Amino acid sequence: MAGARSEDALDLLRRLLVFNPAERLSAAEALAHPYVAQFHQPADEPDAACVITIPIDDNTKARAPGPAVRWRGGAGAERARGAYPGRH
Predict the structure, then answer these.
(1) pLDDT per residue over 4-17, tens digit each?
(2) Per residue in 18-49, is it b (16+ CB within 10 Å) or e — as a string?
(3) What gap in Å lies between CA 34 and CA 59, rounded to an integer?
(4) Does residue 24 register a pLDDT over 50?
């Protein structure tokens, strides 16, 4: 029984970790997969009325806004500068 569960888990991961989203399992398909089927409750999991598209270009790297922050030193350096008052 444990071996079958491991095979089901690997099968689900293989189907979810597909680069092409058109070939990847949908959320509804993943919920119906044998590995997680025991948790699937269709009456409590409504489908969206439309396709949800995230407005981001997958070919563009995102950058955090603002200037880049450069880390200097480790926890010891912060402690030496008094960043942790009362702690030594």
Answers:
(1) 679 999 999 999 99
(2) eeeeeeebeeeeeeebebeeeeeeeeeeeeee
(3) 34
(4) yes
